[in-house]
Amino acid sequence: MIRSSTRTHDAPVNAPEILDRWPHASVLIVDDEPGMRHFLEKTLAPRAGQVLTAESAEHAETLLLRHRFDLVILDISLPGKSGIELLKDLRAQGNLCEVVLITAFADLDTAIEALRAGAGDFLLKPFRVTQVLSAFKQGLERARLKRENWVLKRALSQRTPAADGLVGRSIVIKGLQAALQRVAAVDSTVLLTGESGTGKELAALALHRLSPHGAGPFVPVNCATVSPSLIETELFGVGGRAQGGQGQRDGLFVYAQGGTLFLDEIGELTLAMQATLLRALETRRIRPSGTEQEIPVTARIVAASNRPLRDEVDGGRFRKDLYYRLQVVEITLPPLRAHKEDIPDLVGHFLATLAPQLGVEPFEVTADEMRFLQEYDWPGNVRELRNLIERSLILGALNVSALYQGLSRTRPAPKMAPALDGPIDLQTLEKRHIQAVLESVGGDKTRAAQLLGVSRRTLERRVADWSGG
After folding, report:
1. Which of 119, 127, 45, 36 lies closest to 83, judged by CA?
2. Which CATH number fits domain 158-334: 3.40.47.10, 3.30.450.40, 3.90.950.20, 3.40.50.300?
3. How far from chain centre, in Å, is Cα 15?
4. pTM score, whole prediction
5. DSSP letters along 214-255, please?
6. What pLDDT digit, counting tens, does each position of 150-203 carry?
């Protein structure tokens, strides 16, 4: 878009168009004219969280290494390197910040070159205050939409059952819902604990939606699935000259700005990474790898662990100071065996939501089958129930026999449970179930972990516990 005007840039800065404010936005103004830099800074400073200026491309490059900017207002005609050359260098480095080019002398060819180089807007001097503010707001809106689009694509590519909703009418679930409602109103860090499959990501999503951050993005990351060598750049990002010049990349803290960052299985972080995370939580600032940038953190942090972090602290595997920093508010999610009266509602919910996704017809669950489901102790919790319903929908009938090793593939009634040779403790039942799944996939631990709904690392830990390794 090309804008021009015969008006000078001496219009009053207190125009009504500047009522909108972007308190988290960071802007860089690059122009060799002191008067223009002063005008733009005076216009935008009340609207943005940070406004810095540079008189040349070389000075701008120094600032770009030290700070992260959402928007760059860049003059084309600069001493030394031109504005378009700087823009091309930024794009080559992977810096995708929004850029508005300005110039007093331009023709159509210059405008086309600027837009092809990656500029989002183009202003001709002299311009009105309203035009600057319009370019400013539209540039920040484009930046916001890019972040939201990235978060949405990431969520779709890593889709989990967390979208199924907190289902149940038991006293246990109602108490959990009330606790989440209370905690959502404050901005404190929250630690969610509970066994695997109890719905910790679901609870984090509920906290997000109920909180003042609900209008912002919800960005989940499973710390157990990211390599220890990559987790720092995944969370904090990479500077333009880091990692062999591979280019700048924002981290998940940046994408979660104004929303919620959910750190699942936080107990899997290395001690070194725990120290880095603690600093970020205490200072509310992050530093991308390979840079001197200090980026303010505005996201709410919700962490989760399927193991008691207090035990991890006692064992020297988790930092005590980080534990206390996370445990401002702690909510424990109940295992499914503690609220079995919710199983009929959960089964109905999964049938109603999964059948359309799979393109199949839902089936009826008999009273005997439902009673059988309610007698089972569900070591994999709600996730295991959901996986059972999904497999059963594919097969066309409820396949509860898959829950027990050695049972037939027929549709059993509750009286079949004694095939396990009498009462059995939960740990042994879990062991048999995992062994059966491992046998069914020929010992493939990656595939078995997927079917069980846990990480491979968790599965390996269980097997090592049994073997005494």
Report:
1. 119
2. 3.40.50.300
3. 38
4. 0.62
5. GGS-EEEEETTTS-TTTHHHHHHEE-TT-TTTT--EE-HHHH
6. 666 666 555 544 334 578 888 989 889 889 989 988 888 999 999 998 999 999
